[in-house]
Specification:
This protein has 311 residues and is mainly alpha-helical. The protein folds into two domains: 7-99, Helix Hairpins (Orthogonal Bundle); 101-311, Collagenase (Catalytic Domain) (3-Layer(aba) Sandwich), CATH 3.40.390. It is 66% helix and 3% strand. The protein has helices at residues 7-41, 49-90, 102-116, 123-132, 160-164, 172-185, 197-217, 222-232, 239-248, 261-266, 270-282, 287-296, 298-310; strands at residues 138-140, 148-150, 155-157. A three-stranded mixed β-sheet has the order 1-3-2, sandwiched between helices. β2 and β3 form a beta hairpin.
Length: 311
């Protein structure tokens, strides 16, 4: 199909951009369905169980790579449509319609600064943010899908209006995704900053210690401890802690917030990456957020501070 610079082409590009997330979601759903189907018949796999699992994880990795590329495509299509529309309206390709709506970007930046300036912000986290804040690149302030940082394009997509009123705390999404970005940038292209064996070890130790303590104090077995802790982690305030517990217990122990178990199974390095982003976000603003993180992860949070102090 050949596109000309006219209203019809703009409409075609925007319609195509709308369909991309639907396709991406369908691919994700079908992949999860494949895992679910296998789980229902896994007991019959016999000696070929590992071969089936390897095949499934290969499919999942391919789906993740495809999802990253597909997630960027709508932005690029809409960006092209913006430029075409600007040219049609103003006779120049300079600028886009996004540039005509600077208010949300300004409001969002002011809110990010206000949270950073809260007296409870961890000085180490603030210093790390200040060192890399010029690298922050938000490519979409009105993204309707799950917010994410793309390590290929180095861009962040999120819904700014929703994040301003985030139930887990205003600007939580921003500082979580910026945490991923800094984790990536600070690794100097070799490995992410969170790729620290001691950090992963501390995360597991803290989760195991909390579960064991619960089993002892509540006189219960492992599965009962999972239920007790999951109840304890319910609520928006514990979103970060809940996500980390889920990552290290196959999602058997987590509250209201957390990724799906297939997300963790597809790439084990996501445990450290998400924990780093969760701890970074908890370190910006009200100190009670970091205090809650320290209560559940005393060793891992200390290691987190050690890692960012080294930068």
């Amino acid at each position: 199909m050949r596109l000309s610079i006219n209203a019809e082409s703009v409409s075609v590009l925007r319609e195509f951009a709308k369909k991309i997330p639907i396709v991406a979601d369908e691919i994700t759903e079908r992949t999860e369905s494949l895992f679910s189907t296998y789980s229902s018949v896994a007991e019959y796999a016999g000696p070929h169980e590992q071969e089936f699992l390897d095949m499934l994880y290969s499919v999942k990795r391919a789906q993740d790579i495809a999802a990253q590329a597909l997630n960027e495509l709508p932005y690029m299509l809409n960006s092209t449509a913006d430029k075409m529309e600007s040219y049609i309206k103003h006779g120049s390709s300079s600028g886009t319609l996004l540039a005509e709506k600077p208010d949300i970007a300004k409001r969002y930046a002011d809110a990010a600064q206000a949270r950073l300036d809260n007296g409870g912000t961890n000085p180490l986290a603030r210093g790390l943010y200040e060192a890399f804040k010029n690298n922050v690149r938000i490519v979409d302030y009105g993204f309707m899908g799950t917010p994410f940082y793309n390590s290929l394009s180095k861009g962040i997509k999120l819904n700014a209006v929703a994040d301003l009123h985030n139930p887990t705390g205003s600007m939580s999404t921003y500082y979580h995704e910026v945490g991923h970005m800094i984790d990536d940038y600070a690794g100097n292209g070799l490995a992410w900053l969170s790729s620290d064996l001691e950090y992963r070890k501390c995360l597991q130790q803290d989760v195991d210690a909390y579960i064991n303590k619960t089993m002892i104090t509540q006189h219960c077995d492992l599965m009962e401890a999972y239920d007790i802790i999951s109840e304890e982690l319910c609520g928006n305030w514990n979103a970060n802690v809940s996500d980390i517990f889920g990552s290290l217990t196959g999602c058997r122990c987590q509250g209201d917030w957390g990724h799906h178990f297939t997300y963790w199974n597809a790439d084990q390095s996501r445990v450290e990456k998400e924990a780093f982003a969760n701890m970074f976000e908890a370190s910006i603003g009200d100190s009670k957020r970091a205090d809650t993180m320290k209560a559940f992860f005393p060793n891992a949070y200390a290691r987190f501070e050690y890692i960012i102090r080294s930068i």
